């Protein structure tokens, strides 16, 4: 009976890789200033603690910058670089980071926000099947943000069979199968 039920459900099952979401997400505060970004960041007149909390709660916020009269929020695909500053500047940014454990590493042995790591990745979702990855790397004077998107394609209807083509050789499970065809050009997707 369970085999029959499985066979009935099989046509409606779709498989899509969903990357694991980041855990132990924290806001790490460092001295810095957004250097390269697109769009006009959302601004708020909240106090700094509330700005950090709001960015942490907002799924697509990855950087919040302190302003004299509030803060501004930078979304995952809007921020490219943050300039490192020292304490004398007084300018702070909060960077959303996935830490390896639930406790924040000590900043006196390895400098935040990467704490001695070459890079840090944050994987988040909008809750509608789209996953975003923000990766932070470091140079001597900046933190660089790169982002990418992963989205499952729309399920193909079970009755959709545009053509049949016999393979010239047997295709076994575990083998890699490539098809040739025309791909969309740059900015034509």
Structure description:
It comes from Caenorhabditis remanei. This is PAN-3 domain-containing protein. It holds the Pfam family PAN_3. Residues 1-140 form the PAN-3 domain. Keywords: Signal. With 189 residues, the chain is mainly β. It has a domain at 25-100 and 111-151. It has 2 helices and 9 strands. The chain has helices spanning 2-9, 48-57, and strands spanning 25-37, 42-44, 61-67, 70-75, 79-84, 92-98, 119-125, 130-138, 142-151. Strands 2-4-3-6-1-5-9-8-7 form a 9-stranded antiparallel sheet, covered by helices on one side. A hairpin with a 3-residue loop joins strand 8 (130-138) and strand 9 (142-151). The radius of gyration is 23 Å and the shape is globular. Residues 1-14 and 177-189 have low confidence and may be disordered.
- The secondary-structure class comes to mainly beta
| Percentage of residues assigned to helices | under 10%
Strand order of the largest sheet: 2-4-3-6-1-5-9-8-7
- Mean pLDDT score: 76
- Shape annotation: globular
Give the end-to-end Cα distance, rounded to a whole number of Å: 45 Å
Number of helices: 2
Low-confidence stretches: 1-14, 177-189
Q: H/E order of the elements?
A: HEEHEEEEEEE
Beta strands, count: 9
Give the C-alpha Rg.
23 Å
Strand content: 35-45%
Q: Main β-sheet, in a few words?
A: 9 strands, antiparallel
